[in-house]
Specification:
single chain, 3-stranded antiparallel sheet, 14 helices
Length: about 290
């Protein structure tokens, strides 16, 4: 089966245009699957083998969401094998996805967001950079990889838009908002040149060494600024993305617009934020209603 796996991964990369990270994730899941199956040809694999593999994952303590992701990879592989004529039947066609409790994303209150955004005080280069990154992340809902990967040429503060390349190498335009435009403008005018230290870089956000910011470095910035702001929630850069989406919906934005700004390929990925909003309403009702 290793030969067929190589053909499938090449199909994802070349014909489907899948991102390298996506192909790597499929490779991990499917290598594990083929290791479980042992020496078999595509036509020898039965639905009971697939069900047995999923049961094996469950026995190893793999979460339902991860098992569902693994099944998605299996389905794509076997669909490819049928379409390409390597076998006649798809053993995953009758297998149901594992059911699990949907974990709602952690969201900051508006008060905590304001405290976090105000944490970088002063006019030093580091403070201006951190303020610009936090403002921009909350204003746009970018993924952290999209934020740190931004190039100067991809941000137009005068127009109030940025262009980013998300999952699947798909481009999208995202509005920035007035506050983040001001913060990024201050950073560009007063801080970025100092961080460059006479060097050159196309990246918008730079480290102390004048290099492009990494995801890990920005994660530490968020932790540091949250501590300064007195935000006790265990937050990450993704928490601001979740907060961006939830606060938009709380204030009347439509789901389709939020989907576009987040860069979700499927509306179902965005719908989790409606669950967050409903859960928050229930909590508020219990907290403040006299007969809650």
């Amino acid at each position: 089966m290793d030969r067929f796996l190589d053909l499938f991964l090449n199909y994802l990369l070349v014909e489907k245009g899948a991102a390298a990270n996506t192909v790597e994730a499929y490779s991990r899941d499917l290598t594990r699957y083929l290791g479980y199956l042992g020496e078999r040809t595509p036509s020898q694999i039965r639905p009971t083998d697939v069900a047995g593999y999923l049961a094996h994952l469950k026995g190893e303590g793999i979460a339902p969401r991860s098992r569902a992701r693994a099944l998605s990879a299996l389905r794509m592989l076997h669909r490819f094998l049928v379409v390409e004529g390597y076998c006649e039947t798809n053993p995953t066609s009758i297998i149901e996805a594992p059911k699990g409790v949907q974990k709602l994303p952690r969201v900051l209150s508006c008060r905590d967001v304001e405290a976090l955004l105000a944490a970088p005080l002063g006019t030093g280069a580091i403070e201006l950079r951190d303020a610009a990154m936090l403002e921009l992340l909350y204003a746009t809902g970018l993924r952290v990889s999209e934020l740190v990967g931004l190039a100067v040429a991809e941000v137009n503060v005068s127009a109030g838009y940025l262009m980013t390349i998300g999952k699947g190498d798909k481009e999208r335009l995202v509005p920035m908002g007035e506050s983040s435009c001001k913060a990024v403008s201050r950073y560009l005018a007063l801080a970025r040149g100092e961080l460059l230290k006479g060097g050159t870089s196309s990246r918008l956000f730079l480290s102390r060494l004048g290099k492009g910011m990494t995801r890990q470095a920005f994660w530490n910035i968020v932790k540091k600024r949250a501590l300064q702001a007195g935000v006790r929630s265990n937050i990450s850069p993704h928490t601001l993305r979740h907060s961006f989406a939830t606060h938009l919906l709380d204030n009347g934005a439509d789901l389709r617009s939020v989907q576009i700004m987040l860069g979700h390929a499927d509306l179902s990925s965005t719908q989790i934020y409606t669950h967050v909003t409903r859960e928050r309403l229930k909590q508020l009702h219990v907290q403040f209603h006299p007969r809650g």
